Amino acid sequence: MTCVSPEKWQQVLDNLRCGNHKLQYFLQSALLETDSFYNDNQQFYGDKHSIETPAVKFLLPQIFDSEYAVSPFMQTVDLTNHFLIAMPAMADPFFSKTLTYICEHSEQGALGLVVNRPIDLTLKDLFDQLGISSDDQSLGGLPVMFGGPVQLDRGFVLHQPVGDWQSTMIVDHGVGLTTSLDILRAIASGDSPAQLLVALGYSGWAPGQIEHELSQNAWLTVPASPRIIFELPSEERLTAAMHSLGVDFSSLSDEVGHS
């Protein structure tokens, strides 16, 4: 048994305000109808209003072990191969008005690339900085994206098809994320994947962080489209992703949640 202090219980109540109805239902059932789950009774301790129940004992490590920890009942969606659309209220300057492609999402956290924020650097400039000679001038003017605030000195190539490179994460639908230099050398020599996006830096989330941000209405989510990533100019990608949801960015309020 675990005795839950009033302070811990207040944190549980704060988690309920996230709007996760599955978690709400579970906690209400566990605390108000415990017999149906564990054949065990609630125990209240006078004015302290502490609660001792196997349900809360199970949930406490999940909810309170880290800053962004969440119950396994909140981890109900895999956002791999999805877009994150920053809501208008997004205060973080790194992500304001961004469209982020999630390459990996698991209980260990999430990794993605911002795909609509070009920086003042072209692919040719990047080749020059890396000392890679380029025989193919057709892609030299391709803008390099700001992929996110983590490891800004590291390059990431999102591409289709996946191909065979030294260090590639296969995302979905034939999309790969490669971090090894061999792909850049191949691009420079004219042996480029059919479709590609090059970024510096990536966006990362700790375990439970992205779920917490979703519960705070920081993002909209929508299944990703390679067409939006690879075929549209960067300035059109956010709008196109929004239209795939049937909404306009200007029509969003700060209260809208994720889809």
Task: Write up this protein.
The protein has 259 residues and is α+β, with helices and mostly antiparallel strands. The protein folds into two domains: 3-64, no CATH class; 82-251, VC0467-like. Helices cover 31% and strands 26% of the residues. Strand 9 (168-172) and strand 10 form a beta hairpin. Strands 3, 4, 5, 6, 7, 8, 9, 10, 11 and 12 form a ten-stranded mixed sheet that branches. Strands 1-2 form a two-stranded antiparallel ribbon. The chain has nine helices and twelve strands.
State the main characteristics.
single chain; 259 residues; alpha+beta; VC0467-like; 2 domains; ten-stranded mixed sheet; two-stranded antiparallel sheet; 12 strands; disordered C terminus
What is the total number of structural domains?
2
The count of strands amounts to 12
**Largest sheet, described in full?**
10 strands, mixed
CATH superfamily of the largest domain: VC0467-like
* Estimated radius of gyration: 23 Å
Mean pLDDT: 76
Chart the SSEs and their pairings.
Layout: E1 3-4, H1 6-16, H2 21-32, H3 34-38, E2 51-52, H4 54-64, E3 82-86, E4 99-106, E5 109-114, E6 118-122, H5 123-130, E7 143-146, E8 150-160, E9 168-172, E10 175-178, H6 181-188, E11 195-205, H7 209-215, E12 219-223, H8 226-231, H9 234-244
Parallel strand pairs: 7-11
Antiparallel strand pairs: 1-2, 3-4, 3-12, 4-5, 5-11, 6-7, 8-10, 8-11, 9-10
